[in-house]
Predict the 3D structure of the following.
Amino acid sequence: MEQKNNSLLIYTIFYFLFLYIPVLFLPLFSFNDSNYMSFPLSGFTFRHYEDMWSKAPVFRALWVSIKVGVIASVVSTVIALMAAKAFTKYKFIGSRVSYAAVLLPFLIPEIILAVSLIVIWLSLGFKLGLVPVTIGHILFCTPFCMLILISRIEGFDSSLEEASRDLGENAWGTFWKVSFPLYLPGIIASLLLGFIISFDEFILAFFLSGSDPTLPMYMWNQLRFIKKLPHVLALGAIIIVATTFVVLLAYWLRNLGQAKNKDFKI
Amino acid sequence: MNEKYIEVKNVSKHFDKVKAVDDISVEIKEGEFFSLLGPSGCGKTTLLRLLAGFEYPTKGSLLIDGIDVTALPPNKRPTNMVFQNYAIFPHINVEKNIRFGLRKLGLTKLEKNQRVEEVLSLVKLEGYEERYSNQLSGGQRQRVALARALVRRPKVLLLDEPLGALDKKLRDDMQLELRNLQKSIGITFVFVTHDQEEAISMSDRVAVMNEGQIQQLSQPNELYKNPNNIFVSDFIGETNFLNGKTNEKHGDKIDVSIESLGNFQVDNRLNISANTNDIVCGIRPEAMMISREIQSDWDISLPAFIKQTSYYGEMTRFYVEVKGIDQVLTVSSQHFDNQSFKTGECFISIGLEDIVLLNKK
């Protein structure tokens, strides 16, 4: 008999436990009938959720985050789509350098990005608020969006666009009738992921938002008061579920049609 | 019929320093099945893409039916293309793929419907209108690509190795079908392939290309029987090349000494100069005869030794050594198979009319 080696399986299990157990504490304690995050659990309750539901600032912050998230993800996706198209289609002088330049916000520490933005913004004489937050988020989301879109566009057969030109469409018509529908899963994935990144983002918002808190900032503010902890837990639990759902949707959409394409290519 | 339906005038296409197409001029007739044949990287696909408008020439001009199309984008040219991988739009069904090219033609709804119906029956795809590309076989995709291009009634149909992805049996069927289709609709076809059998069996004329230039432009049988140079002779079919030397000229004949075979008088179609070593003599494997006994009624008959054989069913290849020739000659025979010879001893015979004299360079 061959000895079965389970070490990789055990490693994998430990890895996932390590990764997800802390995250699962949040929903767990959000249903715990106590103001403190400690064991033993003292009973099941929806109280914290009701508590959260009754607080107007939560919804104000949520609305701010949604506005910023939608604008940032749409603008980032448009910029990223144009960049991704250029990088996959053309080999131009400086293409590697500009590719690296677009990806840079992805790599440099966010706090440095935040500090440099605040310095520029204030020295230009503008006020802090949601406009600089949105601009910061666009800067920060664009590399993620571009990587998603490049992975979509790279697997795309360029002869389809040539076929469209050959069949009488001009460049604009070709984009809308052929390229766009085929990129669409990638574009939606990029929108969703851009939104999630902006929605989760704290450091840029913290530096640039002035008096209009986004949702993560609101939560951070509440954490300073022990009594307010439970409704933040409830909020956190909801955000985890919603985020997981959106990210899964984004990945599913990104891969949608690619299996079909593989089969299509010869 | 217009003899100069497509005119390629001194066209070059350079990619950086690579001359993909190097000063080519060629005229293609109306209604002709014209093939561009050559190994990969010879420039045949680039020339096709220049005709389609996907590339613009570095130098020279292109005319189709008397109109200069050199600077026109693909959507303004009277050409349509069948792509190597077919490029069927995967997000729309067969019928919409076919209708795609009709939108900008200014046809009425009735005319469009008529054309779609017509072309579907032409490529025998009735009943497949609702299918998507991933629900079609390779052969069906090929028909869709063909239908999508033909429905626009182009002046010229460009085909970029359209049969390359199909298996052998299907490819043979499609060759015949494509040929018949072209004859029945009468559209000029420009067909790119690296497969010499395909080019020879389908085309009215073939341009053999290498290194960005046309090596020879002839009817298929001319290419096979009277190649202009070593490249064409080697690329179309198979050839044994023997070194030799020319001697005295006699009108359109010339004396040659071929290594170890002796002195002979052969045709000098290419008007090769006398007294030069820069020649080779090409002999096709199928032009030689292999036998157990010497054949005294042939011009040349020599003892040889069979080194190896390969059996192909319809014929057998013999790889033989001849005394004094330091290369293995290939002889093919339909009459004898590899069981016919008890020992390696044999005779090979050659007729003088089958020796093709070529320049070495």
Notes: Chain B has a mean pLDDT of 90. The CA atoms of residues 120 and 126 of chain B lie 6 Å apart. Helices of chain B lie at 44-52, 94-100, 109-122, 138-150, 168-185, 196-202, 220-225, 230-235. Chain B touches chain A through 30 residues (CB under 8 Å).
